[in-house]
Amino acid sequence: MADTSDKNASFMRSLCLGEIREDMIFPFPQIKAEEKETLKATFDAFSTWLRGREKEFREWDVKGHLPAEFLQQMREFGLFGFIIPEKHGGMGFSTSAYSRTIQELSRFESSVALTAGAHSSIGMRGLLIFGTEAQKDKYLPKLATGEMIAAFCLTEPGSGSDAASIKTTAVRKGDKWVINGEKLWITNGGIADFFTVFARTDTKEGKMTAFIVTRDMKGVSNGPHEDKMGIRASSTTTILLDNVEVGDEHVLDEVGKGFKVAMRILNAGRTGLGGGSVGAMKEAIAHCTKQAKQRAQFGKPIAEFGLVKQKIGHMVVETFATESTVSMVSGLVDQGYDDYAVEAAISKVFATECLWRTVDEALQIAGGNGFMREFPYERMMRDCRINRIFEGTNEILRLFIALTGMNDVGSELKELSSSLGNVFSDPIKGFGVLSDYARKRVSYATGVGKSELTKSHPDLKNAAIVFNDGAQRLGTFADRLLRKHGKKIVDSQFATRRLADVMIDLFALGCTISRVTSMIESKGSAACSKEKEILTVFSGQCRRRINGNIGKIDENDDELIKSLADDAVEAESYRWDTI
Ligand SMILES: Cc1cc2nc3c(=O)[nH]c(=O)nc-3n(C[C@H](O)[C@H](O)[C@H](O)COP(=O)(O)OP(=O)(O)OC[C@H]3O[C@@H](n4cnc5c(N)ncnc54)[C@H](O)[C@@H]3O)c2cc1C
User: Can you give the pTM of this predicted structure?
Assistant: First the structure.
């Protein structure tokens, strides 16, 4: 039985060790009733304010510009105060309510959602998490009203995914720090007054430190507005820091802890990005279903053709599973769980990839219209493409997801191998001296004492079987990869990706089972027939993908693919032609 009081637990990290901490994901988290009322009123206000302005949104996209008057309206609508506590003038939304709000904004205009989202999710999140009372008192009231808009400044020309390699420096000079460097592609860069800046402080305390920098400081400026593929109306610029002097009261958290600060902010921010993805998916479905009903070919609406139904059905399934996953992560944060980094990374990867497929298929259903700027699809596609790149690329996040899981399994392996010698080369010999881990391995192999879902509704038995089987195989999968690749696992990215994908499917499936269980418990099974259909389809997809990934441990084309890639990179081209 899981210890529900353990707020340091991670559902997925436990799962990698063979334990299903179902108390963490059951019952499905709900937004509190009072907060629901506030959200309804807020969304009604959004609707009155934003509905019917598609022509303006299109113009802003073409010009790559968000008008100053509109930015002022955003301030007046309170779009910058969502997560700031009420005592500092904000709305004090829970993580779930915040994520749901970004979802709603994304249904109207992605650049608007991003401007508000980057401010709250990452721009000022460090101040909320790590700020001193004095820092909070000084800045939060202005950040809540939007008098100050916030930006998060980590990326540099030479440092993207490898965030630890930043070159911006902060050097001690008397009682000041002097910051010099250039930050690249900073969302809100042209409109922000409050910057969370990461700089190298090669001190004995550590290499990187986070600082609060404000627009009014001498030496702070931004470059021109970037001409982007999507989210074009949002502000993206460089931020230049030229001998910017700040005192110790501008250090966020402690000197030398900047990398940890950056990662905590990005983890927390992922609930906003997930919410935005759900909103855009719902919007894509609303557009393409209308189009499929209205557009007739071969004498009937295209919605009646199997291949169109197939796309729409999959969009519904992926949207429901994404919504379940994103809501679960927000719920974990609201319940006070501390270690949700793997789950947040999973929700970001899953949400942004489901969104990409959904928008792509919606555009396909719209046919030639989908390609025309007059219709919303091409802009949605351009707008959502960035989600797989920023706030941690999906590749880096997959490595993080899988390597965290394997690190845990590896630690148990290490402990075990020191006490049991070569037990893994001859497991039978080790049976007399079972550690926890070895016991779990036996349970994987024999099914005796294995951890299973007990809280899923009996009507969802088949989906629960897929989850339980997958969970049972996950630990052995990680363990086999570790034995096969040993220390080289860090560089065995083909294998790591497969493990990450199994973890992604299992978490999304667990969240979806939990959600449908809660729905059945509140509405009754008969009223949830569609939700059960969704779960049947989704669990089938997960089962096939999990089997496929686990089946490729030993039999795969990895070496051939690597060889072809090396060859193309060496030639810097595709080698073949037919003439
Ligand atoms: C519109 C926009 C807004 C942004 N907003 C902000 C912001 O507000 N603040 C901020 O600090 N940054 C921001 N960024 C930067 C963004 O976070 C980075 O672009 C992102 O982290 C990736 O870094 P990179 O572009 O340098 O790509 P790179 O790190 O050069 O990666 C290029 C490719 O290589 C892959 N790759 C890299 N390393 C590995 C590896 N070890 N294994 C496997 N694959 C790997 C990546 O996944 C990617 O596919 C923004 C970027 C854009 C485009």
Answer: 0.94
